[in-house]
Design a protein that fits this description.
It comes from Massilia terrae. 42% of the residues lie in helices and 18% in strands. By secondary structure, the chain is of the alpha/beta class. The longest helix is centred in the first third of the chain and has 13 residues, at 17-29.
């Protein structure tokens, strides 16, 4: 059954170049269009200047502007307000999870992540059948 719909897009905000490349490769293999942004300042500029993606995968600890603030900026922009946000971070204390969810994130994934679990969470957030 051919799929005539354009590929869903994912904005990946990750300052670790290796992890960013792994995520990009992983999502592109699944047929997603991926935009990589390497720090909080670039993410803020991207949110302000571009159309919303279908999903944002966002690191918490970023240079310049942290992930919690990026979530607030995404949620404050009407065109982006409904975009699912998955936060990905090495900070996995309960308070960080609560802070991410309270800021407006839809899900929180701790590093190191399991690729299949991350893909399943992305599919769920995008409501894509497995």
């Amino acid at each position: 059954m051919p799929n005539d719909q354009p590929a869903q897009s994912i904005l990946v905000v990750e300052d670790d170049e290796h992890i960013a490349k792994v995520l990009s490769f992983m999502f592109e293999r699944q047929g997603y269009r991926v935009t990589l942004v390497a720090d909080g300042r670039a993410a803020s500029e991207h949110v302000a200047a571009h159309d919303a993606p279908d999903l944002v995968l966002l690191d918490v600890m970023l240079p310049y502007v942290d992930g919690f603030e990026i979530v607030r900026r995404i949620r404050a922009r009407a065109a982006w307000a409904g975009v699912p946000i998955l936060m990905l971070t090495a900070k996995n204390a309960e308070q960080d999870t609560v802070r991410a969810l309270d800021a407006g994130a839809d899900d929180f994934i701790a590093k190191p992540f399991q690729p299949n679990e991350l893909l399943a969470r992305v599919r769920r957030a995008l409501r894509v059948p497995a």
